[in-house]
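Job type: complex structure
Entries:
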Amino acid sequence: MSRTHNPVSDLEPFFNPKSIAIIGASQNYVKPGGRPVNALQSKGYRGKVYPVNPSHESINGLKCYPSVLDVPGEVDLAVVSVVAGKVYQALEECVAKGVKAAVIFSSGFAEVGDDGLAEQRRITELARKSGLRILGPNCLGLVNTTNGVMASFAFIVDLPETAEEKVLGFVTQSGAFGAIIYASSLHRGVGFNYFVSVGNEADLEFADFVEYMVYDDKTKLIGGYLEGAKDGDKLRRVAEEALEAEKPVLILKVGRTVAGSRAAASHTGSLAGSDRVYDAFFKQTGIIRIDDYTELIAFTPLFQTGKMPRGKNTAIIATSGGAGVTMADLCESLGLNVIPLRAETREKMDRVLPFFASSRNPVDLTAAVMTRPGIVVDSLRAVCEDPEVDIVICNINLPFTAPGHPIIQEFIDIYRSTDKFVLLSPFVFPGAGMDPAILEILKAGVPTNPNTVIAIKAISILAEYSETLKKRKRPEYRVRPSKSPKPDLSGLLQPGETLSESRSKTVLEKYGIPVTREALAASADEAVEKAGQIGYPVVLKVDSPDIAHKTDAGALKLNLRDEGEVRSAFGEIVANARAYKPDARINGVLVQEMLPEGTEVIVGVSRDPVFGPVIMFGLGGIFVEVLKDVSFRVAPVSPGDARDMVEEIKGSALLRGVRGRPPADVESIVDVILKVSNLVSDYRDSIEELDINPLMVYPDGVKAADALIVVGREKPV
Amino acid sequence: MSRTHNPVSDLEPFFNPKSIAIIGASQNYVKPGGRPVNALQSKGYRGKVYPVNPSHESINGLKCYPSVLDVPGEVDLAVVSVVAGKVYQALEECVAKGVKAAVIFSSGFAEVGDDGLAEQRRITELARKSGLRILGPNCLGLVNTTNGVMASFAFIVDLPETAEEKVLGFVTQSGAFGAIIYASSLHRGVGFNYFVSVGNEADLEFADFVEYMVYDDKTKLIGGYLEGAKDGDKLRRVAEEALEAEKPVLILKVGRTVAGSRAAASHTGSLAGSDRVYDAFFKQTGIIRIDDYTELIAFTPLFQTGKMPRGKNTAIIATSGGAGVTMADLCESLGLNVIPLRAETREKMDRVLPFFASSRNPVDLTAAVMTRPGIVVDSLRAVCEDPEVDIVICNINLPFTAPGHPIIQEFIDIYRSTDKFVLLSPFVFPGAGMDPAILEILKAGVPTNPNTVIAIKAISILAEYSETLKKRKRPEYRVRPSKSPKPDLSGLLQPGETLSESRSKTVLEKYGIPVTREALAASADEAVEKAGQIGYPVVLKVDSPDIAHKTDAGALKLNLRDEGEVRSAFGEIVANARAYKPDARINGVLVQEMLPEGTEVIVGVSRDPVFGPVIMFGLGGIFVEVLKDVSFRVAPVSPGDARDMVEEIKGSALLRGVRGRPPADVESIVDVILKVSNLVSDYRDSIEELDINPLMVYPDGVKAADALIVVGREKPV
């Protein structure tokens, strides 16, 4: 049975089931089969709960059934908690019963080796053909805190749900660590509405649950712990939907380093793409990469204010100069600009501040706030009135300000009336709690976080997200489908072949990429004839799919100025190529225009196991080889991303013209990147690698001087 | 009176005074003049306390004197807390009384503008000529928690001193922020033995107090908050003494960014060197730069164990795979290597771990620790026995392990018997405290920090410090005085002059730096004659102190092959130079050997206001101009630092030979850097800037192709 994908309706039975069967239900409430039965009751789930276990008559006062087939009513969701060997049968019974969704706690599948993997593949097959959607196996399950659906055996189902407004959905590839994040978050007053531990992803994967939350009205933002995406295309589509819906997606993606990657590979069975590709992918899709889950926790209340910083210009108000400067350093390192305040802004503050304070940004109120708390609101008002300020961070305290004091209300009023993003990061005396006055301000809804470092990280993330939203909505960040019909490359892309330079260039030409004027010659006479047509000086190179490094082979001669030079070069090249690799297939000798000097860049493509074709851009030669100064994007790329690729490399200034050189034609580079993107998207199953190296760049155009395409042996799985 | 510097004895009266006078003593104990009187008594200071204030008969039961001159006995230390206008007179009385040291709380000096600065200069003068040593003005003063010397009005003097062993001295350029750091540290169980707020540094400065602590037996490590050093040389000497004494110096240096620098400049009157120079200086002197004071707090107990990691190879043991991977990412980003464990190490663990756990590094014990806590010690023992592991970080918990359980003692025994650095970063359930079993381990002296992020930062700092200690003790990291006598440059370095290329090279030659063969020619005939002597091809350039950019002026001709080319080039150069800058002084035309192609590097010097001559190294051309891929060190540099300068730039691989190029002669580059270091150290008061650009590097030597020296107008103050 083939099924049409529908992210919301397909997953609805997981999040809002009318009835839940627990297959392998236990009377011991700390066992995997016992915990959900208990938690569904204690958390007030209003649907029907059917324990299933042939050994019991009843559990927790609920009638227990020998099999799910014996359950009298309909079952939306089955929780499967039986040993691995019995899972398949349980699922078959679920299918027979017409169950819509199943959560499999059981471990002993892909994570334990080949036998487990084989058994897991059977489960995947069953899901595909039956339409039963599956979460797991080897997962902690799923929790919906808004309706008491506790389809999980994690300890988190027993935690009192103390947080008030819950709009944060969370998906995790690590069950245990995900549960720690859940508990830490709740402890800090940030509750999850949904928690999903995806386990081995035999059917539904990480991105599917993120997608559900994108379309779900109750979820305003989404967090995730990711070791490796299964389907890169799907995650990309979901990220784009999230941007469209203006729901931030914050992901703790581990495996940044070699050690991390190794461990992640062992932790799940997933094939992780390389970390640089993930970084590019996140940039391209607007997913926010976090380094620590505390950033997610701190970000959530800032986002929940509904306010967005208009820009990154930041003012800091502190009661200690040293703290202010330290905060300013951190702000700048995170991309916030601690700008000089306008003269009139400083004058307003100078009128009220004591002489030993400073109205420079970071503003230093000094300990004078103790006796004159009014300077806090006077300064806050002044910086909020500065038209260049977007964000105000207040690192203040009000120890001698009694609750109900008018300046507390003043602070709140300024917060409410300004369009600036005001963040309160109060100074808290070590070991003490927040001042009562600060607590009153907090209760009025002013975003407040006493951990200055994490508060600044969170606001910098929000400011970056605000920019990303604006940027990604611009039309140049939409991938444009090619206007021309897909060129026919049949006969050119032989499976398993490395194409010769001339054939590679023929492919590029079909996509409109400028290449050198050139022609193949089979004899010295023919080479002379072609050289005459192309115009001297010329270059001669062997054309062979088997000789990639022509210089090493002595099969490349530059700057040939006349017939005599061409003749002798032809003979040498053929002789050298045969000597270098006697069995090389030689198509002939390529006669090519000699390009003038220009800036050498490289446009390349490699195939990532998760994301498919990935495009790379860099400056040629040592920039790529020594400095690794390159940028990546996953294909297909938008014009905006192609331009970002060119601009984000460190050596980009070289293209803008330095040391008397004219600026390079960046638009033409962008055009080549887009055409390469079309090519590898059209032929993503065939092209495994592509290199235009160098692409010569001039003030008014580009030309591929050399090219190489590797065709995959077979369609990748 | 000229005085010989003695860091310990000079400062002894601040830290161990036999008697203290408080000038401007107050009966109100929260006032600056009242707090120390009160705190000296409450903290059990055993020396004599003399309140001085003409308005009172007695304060806190102590007899009060109208003037310090009326005090009957000797006064070691005076605390001055009177308005700015009365400070000078009070100090004069101190001098008359024979007081040895004074702390000035009063503000209203350099920080408020020119008048204050003038008054502060008088104080500096008084200190210089009298021998009275001064801390401040505009400071919070000084605290010695080991003997109750509370010469401070900061709130910290009222804090109960709960920490046990106090070996951490702290010096701060920000009083208020320093006090926050003090309180935060104490709250986390890390007490300071000394706290010094240096204020405006009219006499004694930041480095002086660090030096005292280096020589003081009670201090084992030193922390600091620094906005800008006053005397770079002194700080360098002190840092070297600290390395010698194996006392780590951890400094929170603010002003990393433009915004931070601006604010730091406003916060004190200090002239901060640029942040890149500070980074180089810290690298060179072994000072540890921290980003947040919590790193200092976490580092202290690790250092106090007396153990040092032998290397950076790290094993992680965690109870959650996700937490382990996240920790591994952080370790690697901080320079710790999360290495693959040996097969036998993994086998030992595999024998005890459940099948769903992982013995790969990071080791994932899973929630099985709940029921089988023994796997914690089994794993710990296994990784401690792995000869390649230097550091073990345990992110574990033992919730169901009762105090007194044998595995607690086992853990402690392994810790005590291994030479590996074992760090316990227990998992703590959000909102709960540490497990009783963990507390027992902690009490036995195992370094324990539940904040995993900060714990990993702290251990990475200790591992780096351990490497620095080893490295800096190697003889090549000692600055070697030049063996030859200081060359006489009289007549060459005219104040305020930019030296012409030929004169600059004459200076370099005197220091043994290889330069191009060349000679000045005043006429075309002479140019031809010199060219004949040098050998064709040659280069002709104008030689003028007023034309720095010869190419722009059309006053540089390369690759002249014969007499005819030399003659015509000579005429052109003279004409072009005159047209370019009619009033330029022209020494003649420089006839120079035409150098073969090589790798272009740059060796330069600029003068930093704090550190004096700073040497820069980089690859020539776009590497310096576009990528800013350069390294710095403060002169004089050691051979080891010179080599580090060459190796730490990103493009360094180019010098090792890439793309078929032979390796460059790095030793000769190092030699040039050392000779430049000698030159600018010998003439540090004259040479303001120096550029050898390019220095051509070959497989077997180097040659300065162009050079420029700028001589300062006057001796810098």
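Summary: Chain B is about 35% helix and 20% strand. Chain B touches chain A through 76 residues (CB under 8 Å).
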